[in-house]
Amino acid sequence: MKTERICLITNDVETTSILNHKLRDKTGEYVLNQGMPRLLDLYDKYGVKATFFYTGHIAKLYPDVVRIAYERGHEVGSHGLTHEVSKAFDVLSPEEQLSHLRQSKQILEDIIGEEVVSFRAPAARVDERFPLIMREAGFKVDSSVSSQRLDMMFSFGALKKLHWITAPRKAYFTKEDNIFKRGGSEILEVPISAMGFPYIGTFMRIAPALNRCTRQVLYWETLCNGRQFVFLTHPNEFIDEDQETTEIERRAKNYISYLLGDVIRHRLKVKNLGAKALPLYDRELEFFQRKDFEFVTCKEYYKRIKK
């Protein structure tokens, strides 16, 4: 019997300017007018139905950035209320987490007129007890864990992300009080694919050859156990925006975090930005089509698992 081959293409939509290394409302215009059309046309080419996770901030600024994906058959999910580092979910109180989830959910539902059930935390930062908050807010699917991903020292929230090392690799229903462990809750965790290195758009741009090797190893694993692929990218990786500064904004409090999470990370992330990223991504999608993978959204995958 042929092993199930499922690929979930996921996109985090926000106002982060990679080139300028900061949140910038003007970047949202580039996302709407360049990034989203480029991605949506590429997805049409390969018959992809994807999930787009939006921050409430960009959705309020540019509601059409939500509508254009929804009207072409893609799932709309929440990426929280804001992508500000100081308001990451793993530093907010439970009450603040709940408020952010409810507000972001309402903003998106008011735009598309349909329930939003899927979520990914900004910078994939969550704490153990997050399933309890998600359930209370009315969500069903999370995709913030990246099992066995080992580059967390280059991102913020690294200590909490150490839980990724032992998290299950295949999609799993979490424990009620621990998002990093399998259990009996109603929240489905769909881990972002990784095998030491992450299988994401950023890594695809930084190290294309190594990314293809990672994808091949993950493919062999799928052939063995049916593990689903979950690819993460951002429309702001596919925009050619103006550069207003060469200064690297300091977001971290201590020097080591600043050096790793701001300076080094920024210098890596600007490689192959904009139109140069499109042929790299085209190659990834062509692989899944050639290998007979089925593209499904997070919401659709949840419905299948629940049957």
How many H/I helical runs? Answer: 11
Strand content: 5-15%
Q: What is the SS-derived class?
A: alpha/beta
Q: Biggest sheet, in brief?
A: 5 strands, parallel
CATH fold-level name: TIM Barrel
CATH architectural name: Alpha-Beta Barrel
Structure description:
By secondary structure, this protein is an alpha/beta fold. It has a single domain (6-306), classed as Alpha-Beta Barrel (TIM Barrel). It is 41% helix and 15% strand. It contains eleven helices and 14 strands. The strands form four sheets. Strands 1, 4, 5, 13 and 14 form a five-stranded parallel beta sheet that branches. Strands 6-7-10-8-9 form a five-stranded mixed beta sheet. The longest helix has 22 residues, at 25-46. The chain is globular and about 50 Å long.
Any key phrases for this structure?
307 residues, alpha/beta, TIM Barrel, five-stranded parallel β-sheet, five-stranded mixed β-sheet
